[in-house]
């Protein structure tokens, strides 16, 4: 890759997958998979375009728009749209690469993609956001469709933005079809979709707890980062199941419970309203029961915890924070965000797992632990194709089944392809990486995307 510009986020995601494959028996048993990795690491298509729109003062604004259509061997491209000033090609390639193997772990027929723009919705009016979305979709609509590429929301893209995007697509293409997920319930959306990533994360960790002999959620202290949909619904589900939530955060700082105080459903509802209006956690009046720590993430400030759920953005747990979580007694860490831990942090967790065996902290990667969101997006696609709607109970049961399968797929694949010492917990990061890769590689081979000359 030396002839290409540096893409640190993508390179990190690639190296994580490649190291799992190298440290297993995959290449030993199937040496031809080396060429499969080489082919799968390059997106099938990268679309870049300009987005020209007008702000409320009449001034012309221009942003960069992207769609990285990574892999369609398992189904239509599927992955979110992110609106954030940090968006660039490296970040979207990393997200699309991860999405490909995450979608494979759901068991549904979905390929991988990611897209978005460096547009910043914070501080923009509703009309400005609408004008941006209209301009963005006028170009993107040329490249997507219900059987081609089905985007969803991500950071900066919620129900309002999905509505503007879908309405523009419908007018531009003269089609009412399931081209976006996360839609309103009255026009093709699915129940449980807003909750799905957070709920699914908790369902996944439930199996980690049970397998490791740690019981259920009752009495567990849980540290969570983020304060968007994933963090909010993960926190609510943890509380519902009997756990205590002690932190939330945003890009400006962290809220940490003080003394015997915990984060309550009432806190989460108020914070949800605050974030809907693009506010900062620093504006939340906690009346002294929650401490706001400016410029900090929660991990080194939460005291003793049992479970950590990074649910904000990429690389939000550093090596030092990983060491701090282990010192605090944390036994389980699962990513609600994509690539929430740095590689150095993952190395710490994996080394501790090998050295300390059953008493170690057990790490679950986002491609497995947070696949519930895209799983319910896939269920929304299925409902759209059949022109029907399932009940909350039906969708929730399907979500639970998908998360159970994702956990045991990664667990059993780790046992099959990696060395697991007696008393040691299998590597969920290696098992999930291998399981997702092998499924995609086999489909690509069957369809002639790569072949072996040996």
Walk me through this protein's architecture.
With 454 residues, this protein is of the alpha/beta class. Among the domains are: 41-179, Leucine Dehydrogenase, chain A, domain 1 (Rossmann fold), CATH 3.40.50; 196-364, Rossmann fold, CATH 3.40.50. 44% of the residues lie in helices and 15% in strands. The chain is built from 15 helices and 12 strands. The strands form 2 sheets. It has a 7-stranded mixed sheet with strand order 9-8-7-6-10-11-12. Strands 1-2-4-3-5 form a 5-stranded mixed sheet, with helices on both faces. Strand 3, helix 4 and strand 4 form a beta-alpha-beta unit. Helix 14 (392-417) crosses helix 15 (428-446). The protein is globular, with a radius of gyration of 21 Å. The mean pLDDT is 95. InterPro entries: Aminoacid_DH-like_N_sf, Glu/Leu/Phe/Val/Trp_DH, Glu/Leu/Phe/Val/Trp_DH_C, Glu/Leu/Phe/Val/Trp_DH_dimer, Glu/Leu/Phe/Val_DH_AS, Glu_DH, Glu_Leu_Phe_Val_DH, NAD(P)-bd_dom_sf. Belongs to the Glu/Leu/Phe/Val dehydrogenases family. GO terms for molecular function: glutamate dehydrogenase (NADP+) activity; nucleotide binding. The record marks 154 as: Important for catalysis. The active site is at 114 (proton donor).
The side-by-side strand order for the widest beta sheet comes to: 9-8-7-6-10-11-12
Per CATH, the architecture of the domain at 196-364 is 3-Layer(aba) Sandwich
Q: Mind describing the biggest β-sheet?
A: 7 strands, mixed
Briefly note the CATH topology name of the domain at 196-364. Answer: Rossmann fold
Strand content: 15-25%
CATH superfamily of the domain at 196-364: NAD(P)-binding Rossmann-like Domain
Number of helical stretches of at least 4 residues: 15
Shape: globular
CATH class of the domain at 196-364: Alpha Beta
Mean pLDDT: 95
Portion of residues in helices?
40-55%
Distance between the termini: 25 Å
- The radius of gyration over CA amounts to 21 Å
| Computed structural class | alpha/beta
Low-confidence stretches: none
Please tally the β strands and state the result: 12
Q: Give the topology string: H per helix, E per strand.
A: HHHEEEHEHEHHEHEEHEEHEHEHHHH
InterPro entries: Aminoacid_DH-like_N_sf, Glu/Leu/Phe/Val/Trp_DH, Glu/Leu/Phe/Val/Trp_DH_C, Glu/Leu/Phe/Val/Trp_DH_dimer, Glu/Leu/Phe/Val_DH_AS, Glu_DH, Glu_Leu_Phe_Val_DH, NAD(P)-bd_dom_sf
Site (Important for catalysis): 154
GO cellular component, one term: cytosol
Protein name: Glutamate dehydrogenase
């Amino acid at each position: 890759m030396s002839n290409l510009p540096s893409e640190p986020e993508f390179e990190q995601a690639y190296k994580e997958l490649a190291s799992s494959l190298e440290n297993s028996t995959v290449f030993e048993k199937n040496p031809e998979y080396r060429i499969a990795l080489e082919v799968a690491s390059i997106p099938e298509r990268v679309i870049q375009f300009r987005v020209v729109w007008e702000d409320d003062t009449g001034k012309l604004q221009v942003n960069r728009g992207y769609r990285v259509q990574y892999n369609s061997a398992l189904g239509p491209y599927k992955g979110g749209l992110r609106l954030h000033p940090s968006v660039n090609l490296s970040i979207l390639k990393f997200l699309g690469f991860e999405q490909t193997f995450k979608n494979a772990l759901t068991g549904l027929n979905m390929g991988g993609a990611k897209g978005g723009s460096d547009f910043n919705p914070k501080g923009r009016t509703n009309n400005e956001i609408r004008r941006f979305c209209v301009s963005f979709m006028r170009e993107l609509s040329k490249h997507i469709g219900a059987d081609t590429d089905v985007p969803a929301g991500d950071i900066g893209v919620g129900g309002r933005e999905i509505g503007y995007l879908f309405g523009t697509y419908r007018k531009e293409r003269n089609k009412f079809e399931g081209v976006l997920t996360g839609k309103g319930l009255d026009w093709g959306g699915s129940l449980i979709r807003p909750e799905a990533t957070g709920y699914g994360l908790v369902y996944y960790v439930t199996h980690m707890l049970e397998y490791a002999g740690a019981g259920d959620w009752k009495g567990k202290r849980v540290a969570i980062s983020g304060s968007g949909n994933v963090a909010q619904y993960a926190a609510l589900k943890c509380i519902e199941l009997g756990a205590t939530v002690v932190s939330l955060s945003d890009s400006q700082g962290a809220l940490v419970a003080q003394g015997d105080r915990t984060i309550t459903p009432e806190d989460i509802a108020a914070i949800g309203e605050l974030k809907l209006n693009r506010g900062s956690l620093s504006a939340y009046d906690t009346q002294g029961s929650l401490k706001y720590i400016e410029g900090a993430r929660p991990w080194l400030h939460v005291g003793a915890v049992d479970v950590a759920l990074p649910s904000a953005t990429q690389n939000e747990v550093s090596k030092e924070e990983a060491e701090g979580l282990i010192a605090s007694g944390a036994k389980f860490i699962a990513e609600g965000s994509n690539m929430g831990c740095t590689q150095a942090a993952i190395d710490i967790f994996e080394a501790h797992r090998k050295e300390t065996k059953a008493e170690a902290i057990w790490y679950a990667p986002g491609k497995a632990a947070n696949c519930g969101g895209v799983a319910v997006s896939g269920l929304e696609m299925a409902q759209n194709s059949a022109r029907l709607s399932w009940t909350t109970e039906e969708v929730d049961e399907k979500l639970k089944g998908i998360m159970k399968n994702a956990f045991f797929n990664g667990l059993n694949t780790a046992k099959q392809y990696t060395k697991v010492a007696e008393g040691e917990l299998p590597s969920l990061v290696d098992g999930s990486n291998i399981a997702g890769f092998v499924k995609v590689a086999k489909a690509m081979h069957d369809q002639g995307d790569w072949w072996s000359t040996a």
